[in-house]
Backbone:
């Protein structure tokens, strides 16, 4: 663990937006280093070792997607992507390239801060080994014993249902793309078969949610993927 | 672009059709010869000439001058050889038959000229109709642009004026404002900016749909998930409102663009929420019907004024122009554009007992792909 407050790197070319995020994040006790180009960002990740990267996908010198793929060759730094609202394909691509989370503009700074904190928490937890028990609301998942409970009632899941759920548990609080889920649960040959995912997700919701049409745990991110709610609001 | 295309296409077609026309100029009289031959002893030569005349007339009407002359000459040759005594010789002894042949030639030329003129007039007329259409379209675009401008200037300028005003008051403040007024100003800025943001998003979305650049990203989705994702996007807004959902289990997957369809649901739910008191329920029902899926969203608000059931789907139409809760008048037009892009329909009616009812019908064009289910073993 680093001593003191975490350093966040912001790659964003709009100076006003830089200023806004800078002020907001500093008020929350983060140190912020802001750069305006992808090239400067890549250098800063190497030299300054920030704890987290906030990356705008539209940069003047290179595509944000390229920044992510280049970084992922040698760095595990958590990445939050900022993008326009109607660009689900860009967002999905960024996540598949290795970004950890995304926000669409315009977003509330409070949401950004809670996402940053969640990501930093996850990184801090990781070295302690895999998560054993996950709990949110009345849902409890025991990963190694492969058991699932809703309040005190044990729920029977099929192997695929359980694998799907545990994949979401491993990324609890973060979005997992359709492609990532299909690849992890069904294998690389099934990445285009999104209807498998819909059917099994519906089955899971009917077993775990009290009202499957208004899910509390298994949330849909339209056009992008699914997110397991980490903390019930 | 279109003009160049035409230039390329027409000469090609014309040369092809000219060959065909010339061929028919010869073929039609020969065909008539075949038809007439069995009756050569029944019909007089002038009767037969009349039949040939009919053929020439036909060719002239449809294929123009050159083929009609060709038809006349072929007819003349065939008539002289097969029908005019002496038979099987091109010689013609009868003055009357000779006269008939000349008349046939004249008729061919005159008719083809006449036909050409008619065609010309028709083309002119079609052109002028097209021109009129173009003008109407331009005028419609103009009206649209004007209503867009007036709408934008009203809906964006107002919040902008408030934001600029409040921000500059805060900026130039030299500690004269107390904490409460400062907070008020900041709150106004935030609310108005949010409003502007919503409107801008709607305008951009409509522009995108209008420009026809939206390709549907159709995938197989559970109807339940589309309703659910729309509801969770409005989670905060609908927190204290009862929402009843009627939906059978095991509805088949549908092949739709889920992001756009979610937008339709969000717009309709947002309207239902805006126009009815917060304690009154919103009812959603989803179900299968013949070759399709229906979704209805109903509220207990004031309903839609009589006669406006169609009009509310028009761009920039607002029931109450000055109402603070009304948006830019694009929400329902966006819904309609999206549903129609899916080949479906959307309608608004009033429900019995009060309130508005929106009905969506989505056609199901193909059945969902099969899924290999895992063996029925459960974990335990």
Residues:
């Amino acid at each position: 663990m680093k001593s003191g407050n975490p350093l966040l790197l912001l790659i964003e070319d709009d100076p006003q937006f830089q200023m806004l995020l800078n002020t907001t994040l500093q008020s929350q006790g983060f140190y912020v280093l802001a750069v305006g180009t992808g090239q400067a960002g890549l250098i800063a990740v190497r030299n300054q070792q920030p704890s987290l990267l906030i990356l705008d996908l539209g940069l003047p010198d290179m595509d944000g997607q390229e920044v992510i793929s280049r970084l992922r060759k040698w760095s595990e730094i958590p990445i939050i992507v900022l993008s326009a609202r109607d660009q689900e394909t860009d967002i999905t691509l960024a996540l598949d390239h290795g970004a950890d989370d995304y926000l669409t503009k315009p977003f509330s700074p409070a949401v950004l801060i809670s996402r940053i904190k969640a990501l930093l928490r996850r990184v801090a937890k990781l070295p302690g080994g895999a998560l054993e028990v996950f709990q949110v609301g009345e849902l409890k998942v025991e990963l190694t014993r492969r058991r699932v409970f809703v309040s005190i009632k044990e729920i029977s899941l099929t192997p695929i249902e359980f694998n799907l759920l545990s994949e979401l548990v491993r990324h609890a609080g973060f979005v997992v793309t359709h492609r990532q889920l299909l690849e992890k649960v069904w294998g690389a040959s099934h990445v285009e078969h999104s209807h498998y995912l819909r059917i099994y997700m519906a089955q899971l919701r009917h077993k775990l949610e009290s009202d499957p049409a208004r899910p509390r745990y298994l949330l849909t991110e339209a056009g992008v993927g699914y997110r397991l709610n980490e903390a019930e609001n | 672009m279109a003009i160049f295309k035409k230039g390329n296409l027409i000469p090609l077609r014309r040369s092809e059709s000219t060959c065909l026309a010339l061929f028919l100029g010869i073929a039609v009289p020969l065909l008539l010869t075949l038809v007439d031959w069995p009756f050569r002893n029944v019909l007089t030569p002038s009767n037969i000439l009349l039949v040939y005349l009919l053929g020439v007339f036909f060719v002239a009407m449809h294929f123009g001058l050159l083929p009609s002359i060709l038809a006349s000459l072929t007819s003349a040759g065939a008539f002289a050889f097969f029908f005019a005594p002496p038979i099987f010789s091109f010689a013609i002894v009868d003055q009357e038959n000779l006269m008939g042949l000349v008349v046939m030639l004249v008729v061919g030329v005159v008719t083809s000229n006449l036909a050409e003129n008619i065609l010309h007039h028709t083309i002119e007329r079609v052109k002028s109709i097209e021109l009129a259409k173009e003008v109407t379209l331009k005028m419609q675009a103009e009206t649209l642009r004007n209503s867009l401008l007036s709408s934008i200037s009203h809906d964006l300028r107002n919040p902008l004026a408030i934001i600029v005003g409040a921000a500059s008051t805060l900026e130039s403040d030299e500690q004269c404002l107390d904490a409460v007024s400062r907070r008020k100003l900041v709150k106004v800025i935030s609310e108005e900016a949010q409003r502007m943001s919503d409107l801008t998003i709607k305008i951009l979305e409509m522009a995108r749909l209008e420009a026809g650049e939206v390709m549907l990203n159709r995938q197989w989705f559970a109807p339940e998930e589309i309703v659910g994702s729309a509801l969770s996007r409005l989670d905060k807004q609908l927190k204290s409102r009862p929402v009843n959902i009627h939906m059978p289990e095991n509805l088949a997957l549908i092949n739709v663009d889920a992001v756009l369809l979610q937008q339709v649901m969000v717009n309709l739910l947002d309207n239902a929420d805006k126009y009815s008191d917060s304690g009154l329920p919103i009812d959603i029902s989803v179900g299968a019907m013949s070759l399709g899926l229906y979704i209805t969203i109903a509220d207990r608000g004031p309903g839609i004024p009589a006669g406006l059931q169609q009009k509310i789907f028009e761009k920039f139409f607002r029931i109450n122009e000055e109402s603070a809760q009304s948006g830019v008048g694009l929400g329902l037009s966006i819904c309609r554009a999206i549903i129609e892009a899916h080949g479906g329909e959307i309608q608004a009616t009033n429900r019995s007992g009060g309130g508005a009812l929106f009905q969506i019908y989505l056609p199901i064009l193909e059945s969902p792909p099969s899924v290999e289910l895992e063996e029925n073993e459960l974990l335990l």
Notes: Chain B is about 60% helix and 10% strand. Residues 95-171 of chain B form the longest helix (77 residues). The mean pLDDT of chain B is 81. The beta strands of chain B are 219-221, 243-246, 254-256, 282-289, 292-298, 345-350, 356-363.
